[in-house]
């Protein structure tokens, strides 16, 4: 077995951090500067005409609240393993977000959080993070279906509900089948074993978070002079999040994926494409880019458990 020196491990960890942070900054820069659909002159002109310190502060506050609610969700669930402070939960969530930037659907986020806990707890961390993200996905589906019904997609939703029902029935019938020692029945039993208070708090915070970022989207459209009925606009926003979250993607392509879906749905309402693209870009910048920039600091500060042990 090849033994790697402490100094070599330090260098490899530093190199990994550099690749994560450097890659994150490169992809962010590339999206903002080289995206041909972004007309910065139109945006700056609108910003000059609409500039409002209160409005900008409100939009920024919604971004803060969106990520803060996610941090509270993780702090709540992580108590199953050990009580963690708000500052520690903040570090784990933002560093994991940065680490998951290059993985499909943010899978790397699971590994990022697991690094903060003893190796024996890795499976439990992955499970708790699945609960944390899973409720957000369920809400996206539920609100998305409501949104599509508001927009008049009754036939399509009928077919979707039949498909979902068929999948649910199949999973129920197969729940006791074991694959490599694991089964759906065990998974559901594990979910039910979590304290009900923990579940209630997780659901409550997830609903608040969904309402936060969906209404941030709504208020940005209002700022761009889009005049549509509240339920029509919110229904379309819910549909966009539902469809976009159902597609496999990388976090750094989140802007392109949501933007593409948004252009289609909002285009049906007669909204100018450049407005939709810019609002999608702003949502991506405010809710992904800014947290990733802060998370990059935490990534550089992170010291793996192995190095901590060997440095003693």
SSE layout:
Layout: H1 6-33, H2 40-50, H3 53-78, H4 86-99, H5 108-114, H6 122-150, H7 154-173, H8 184-193, H9 196-223, H10 230-246, H11 254-267, H12 273-301, H13 305-311
Helix pairs in contact: 1-12, 3-4, 3-6, 3-9, 4-5, 4-12, 5-6, 6-9, 6-10, 9-10, 9-12, 10-11, 11-12
Describe, in short, the structure shown:
By secondary structure, the protein is mostly helical. It has helices spanning 6-33, 40-50, 53-78, 86-99, 108-114, 122-150, 154-173, 184-193, 196-223, 230-246, 254-267, 273-301, 305-311.
Outline the biggest β-sheet: none
Mean pLDDT: 79
Strand content: under 5%
Uncertain parts: 306-312
Which term fits the overall shape?
globular
Number of helices: 13
Number of DSSP strand runs:
0
Give the radius of gyration.
21 Å
Measured as a percent range, the helix fraction is over 70%
Class from helix and strand fractions? mainly alpha
Instruction: Report the span from N to C terminus.
Output: 23 Å
Task: State the domain count.
Answer: 1
Please trace the helix and strand order, writing H or E for each element.
HHHHHHHHHHHHH
Looking at this protein, list some descriptive labels.
single chain, 312 residues, mainly alpha, 77% helix, disordered C terminus
Descriptive notes:
There is one protein chain. The protein is built from 13 helices and no strands. The protein has helices at residues 6-33, 40-50, 53-78, 86-99, 108-114, 122-150, 154-173, 184-193, 196-223, 230-246, 254-267, 273-301, 305-311. Helix 1 runs antiparallel to helix 12 (273-301) and helix 4 packs across helix 12. The chain has one domain. It is mainly α and 312 residues long. The radius of gyration is 21 Å and the shape is globular. It is 77% helix and 0% strand. Residues 306-312 have low confidence and may be disordered.
């Amino acid at each position: 077995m090849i033994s790697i020196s402490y100094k070599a491990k330090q260098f490899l960890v530093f190199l990994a951090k550099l690749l994560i942070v450097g890659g994150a900054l490169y992809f962010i820069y590339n999206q903002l500067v080289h995206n041909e659909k972004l007309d910065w002159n139109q945006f700056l002109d609108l910003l000059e005409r609409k500039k409002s310190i209160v409005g900008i502060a409100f939009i920024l506050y919604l971004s803060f609240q969106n990520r803060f609610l996610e941090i509270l969700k993780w702090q709540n669930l992580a108590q199953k393993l050990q009580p963690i402070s708000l500052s520690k939960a903040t570090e784990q969530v933002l560093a994991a977000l940065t680490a998951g930037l290059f993985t499909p659907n943010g899978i790397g986020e699971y590994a990022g959080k697991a690094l903060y806990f003893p190796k024996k707890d890795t499976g439990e961390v992955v499970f708790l993070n699945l609960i944390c993200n899973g409720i957000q996905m369920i809400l996206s589906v539920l609100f998305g279906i409501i949104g599509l019904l508001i927009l008049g997609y009754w036939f399509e939703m009928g077919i979707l509900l039949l498909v979902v029902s068929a999948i649910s029935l199949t999973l129920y019938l197969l729940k006791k089948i074991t694959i490599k020692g694991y089964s759906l029945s065990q998974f559901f039993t594990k979910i039910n074993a979590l304290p009900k208070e923990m579940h209630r708090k997780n659901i409550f915070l997830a609903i608040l978070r969904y309402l936060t970022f969906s209404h941030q989207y709504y208020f940005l459209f209002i700022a761009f002079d889009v005049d549509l009925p509240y339920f029509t606009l919110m229904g379309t926003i819910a549909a966009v999040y539902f469809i976009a979250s159902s597609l496999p993607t990388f976090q750094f392509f989140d802007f392109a994926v949501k933007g593409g879906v948004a252009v289609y749905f909002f285009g049906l309402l007669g909204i100018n494409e450049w407005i939709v693209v810019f609002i999608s870009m702003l949502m991506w910048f405010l809710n992904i880019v800014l947290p990733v920039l802060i998370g990059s600091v935490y990534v550089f500060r992170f010291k793996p458990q192995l190095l901590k042990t060997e440095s003693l």
